[in-house]
Amino acid sequence: MRKPSGISVTRSFASGLALLAVAVQIPAGVSAQSSQVAATPVHATLNQVMRGVQFPLSNVVFSSQGNDPAAVKQDARPSAATDLLASVFGGWQAVENSSLGLAESATLLTIPGRKCANGVAVPVQNADWIRFVQGLRDAGEAAYRAAQSKNQDKMLEVSEQVAASCSNCHQVYRKAGTQADALVNRCKP
User: Fold this and answer.
1) Are the CB atoms for 47 and 54 separated by under 8 Å?
2) Quick check: is 15 in a domain?
């Protein structure tokens, strides 16, 4: 018996997906992944995601510009360390993991239903928001590649890309001014 070629298996799989999409009436342009994201419960505001996930991860990336991650002393109890660089997965591995975490956490910024600190819905459908989120994802991936090289000069270069990805979005969606004005205007382009 002859094994099917990869092309015919791929075509069969694609045909099956097309039939399934018709059978369950998935609207054109909506992927299974985006419908999964839509069904994902949201527990944190955008501000909480930024402070709890992206801010600490980016700080690990930024620290590698001036401090050699390989020289960071491991905590006496590395499994309980709050400093990722001194943890059981510390050093350059912490920089790699944090870089990948930044890239992956970009998806958290696209989940419908998330609110900003002022109660305004995160503008997940706005073209510029989508572009800014992709910029964060790209910066995280670039930081990961640089961290793999264990070269601080490369981390210095890529840190500028990470900072720019944050700044590009903040300039539009996190207005400057008094703290009260900034809060009211969050997530409003």
Assistant:
1) no
2) no
